[in-house]
TrEMBL record:
Protein name: cysteine synthase
One GO BP annotation of this record: cysteine biosynthetic process from serine
Tryptophan synthase beta chain-like PALP domain location: 6-280
Catalytic reaction list: O-acetyl-L-serine + hydrogen sulfide = L-cysteine + acetate
Source organism phylogeny: Bacteria, Pseudomonadati, Bacteroidota, Flavobacteriia, Flavobacteriales
Gene behind this protein: cysM
Residues annotated with N6-(pyridoxal phosphate)lysine modification: K42
Pfam family, one: PALP
Positions that bind pyridoxal 5'-phosphate: N72, G173, T174, T175, G176, T177, S254
Length: 292
């Protein structure tokens, strides 16, 4: 399927930090997930969740699909559902950027905005599954989410660093990226350190969450994360702007958060090879004040 748009998912480049990392004994690489056709790391999970459900006959073209999302997963699901001829309703917080909503609609999805944040969106979707016969991929509890990264993201990082990676840094939302990549990398070398990124209390960073216990993703396994760093909203904004201006990497706030932590880590280490995920592209934040 390499000639189709779906065949372009994955195999994203990693590029070396030329400016922000100032420790000469540490190499810091950014994995550019915005190069996926849907513009984010979520293309990987969305494709694997849809393909797994179709292959297992859990869904057909007549199934009513619904999913709660903060944005990137919804765009990926809308794009891939369209290719497979599936109809899907996507439920997002009403604070979602205009670009996100328009992109999902462009791919043919129905978009519902919910006033009570991502938790409210998740409750709304679950209610439709329970009472109206909808099917949800439930990315927060779907093993096909993390398995996508076990099959693709982890092997790519191992391959592209020639097995030299010592630390992997990822923002934590559904936790699929960090769970799957950790599972693969630890199987290659158990000493590789897996670093998760969460927001400080009171910070709002799209794509990164510190979940209340009742909403904690069921796919999350704390034993697969060695350390968790917290990052503030202000730090994530400043770093997203610096990534664009100084490294030429145009990305969203969650990538600014992950980069903040990757740079903290680089300063702590005597030596190492860090790979940090750049989750998406900055153009889906232009209607916000991120780059003002």
């Amino acid at each position: 399927m390499s000639n189709s748009i779906l065949g372009q998912i994955g195999n994203t480049p990693i590029v070396k930090s030329l400016v922000l990392n100032t420790n000469p004994n540490v190499e810091l690489y950014f994995k550019l997930e915005g190069d996926n056709p849907g513009g984010s790391v979520k293309d990987r999970a969305a494709y694997n969740m849809i393909k797994t459900a179709l292959d297992s006959k859990a869904i057909t073209k007549s199934t009513k699909l619904i999913e709660a999302t903060s944005g990137n997963t919804g765009i990926a699901l809308a794009m891939i559902a369209g290719v497979f001829g599936l109809d899907i309703e996507l439920v997002m917080p009403e604070t979602a950027t205009r670009e996100r909503v328009q992109t999902m609609k462009a791919y043919g999805a129905k978009v519902t905005l919910h006033p009570d944040g991502i938790e409210g969106a998740r409750d709304y979707a679950e209610n439709k599954v329970t009472n109206e016969g909808f099917y949800s991929f439930n990315q927060f509890a779907n093993d096909a989410n993390w398995q996508a990264h076990y099959k693709t993201t982890g092997p790519e990082i191992w391959r592209d660093t020639n097995g030299a990676v010592t630390h992997f840094v990822s923002s934590m939302g559904t936790t699929g990226t960090i769970m799957g990549t950790s599972t693969y990398l630890k199987a290659q070398n158990e000493s590789i350190q897996i670093i998760g990124v969460q927001p400080t209390d009171g910070s709002s960073i799209p794509g990164i969450r510190k979940w209340p216990q009742e909403y904690l993703p069921k796919i999350f396994n704390s034993s697969k994360v060695d350390r968790i760093y917290e990052v503030s909203q202000e730090e994530a904004i400043v770093m997203a702007r610096r990534l664009a201006k100084e490294e030429g990497i145009f990305a969203g706030m969650s990538s600014g958060g992950a980069t903040t932590v990757a740079l903290r880590l680089a300063k702590e280490l005597k030596e190492g090879v860090i790979v940090s995920i750049i989750c998406d592209r900055g153009d889906r934040y232009l209607s916000s004040d991120l780059f003002e």
